Amino acid sequence: MYYNPYPYFVYPNYYPAWVMANQPTIHHPSSHLAMPTNPTNRSPFPIINTKKLKTSAKQIKVLMQQAQLLTDKIDESEQFAHDLMNAAQQSNKTEVEKLIA
Hints:
Helix content is 50%, strand content 0%. The chain contains four helices and no strands. The N and C termini lie far apart (72 Å). The mean pLDDT is 78.
């Protein structure tokens, strides 16, 4: 039979004294809440600066355009796809770089 080490008391006034003694008397909300509830508390995060994010987005945009060109070339040319795959399988790094450039 299953043993429950945490007894459940049905009657609300029948909790043992040790249960009541272990209850905290004052509840202090955490100061590390995801959404601070006190309007006098400021955000724990630094002031937002989007310069790095915008710079990264521009760099990714250039890389994505270059990747689009490469995938279009692979899709359009069977010979290019064959040459690129053949050079890659032979671990011919210089030929792969030349074809991609």
